[in-house]
Amino acid sequence: MSKVMANVSCVAMRGRALLITGPSGVGKSSLALALMDRGAELIGDDGVTLAQVGELIVATPPPNTEGLIEIRNVGLLEVPTARAPVAIVINLTPEAERLPLGHAAASLLGRDVPQVDLYPDTPYLALRAEAALEMHGLD
């Protein structure tokens, strides 16, 4: 079973995928770019294909925009892509709790994946996303 998700970005870090969700214009592509600057590889921008492979939900580039990422006010950048099992969902929302106790869960193809809500307007967003992957992401 597979599904193409629109309006999400996704990168791979150390063999694990961070699926970035949130409303349009919140900064999903910007966070993906910042994580790429920290060594992540693009899986998909503004869309990703998810498929169940055994017990894992694997993210792969979407066929229509594979290898392209938007740099707001600049244009589209072409980059190599990766694929990886989804380890965490990073949900960008202004309603994120300042000090949550643990994490939530997002359902992807009927499987629960850890979800961490992050406040989108901070220069340290990539550091927070990477820390969330290490603290709460699936191995």
From TrEMBL:
Keywords assigned by UniProt, alphabetized: Kinase, Transferase
Gene Ontology biological-process annotations: regulation of carbohydrate metabolic process
Taxonomy, superkingdom: Bacteria
Record-linked InterPro entries: Hpr_kin/Pase_C (IPR011104), P-loop_NTPase (IPR027417)
Residues covered by the HPr kinase/phosphorylase C-terminal domain: 9-81
GO MF entries: ATP binding; phosphorelay sensor kinase activity
Database matches in SUPFAM superfamilies: PEP carboxykinase-like (SSF53795)
Protein name: Serine kinase
Organism: Aurantiacibacter zhengii
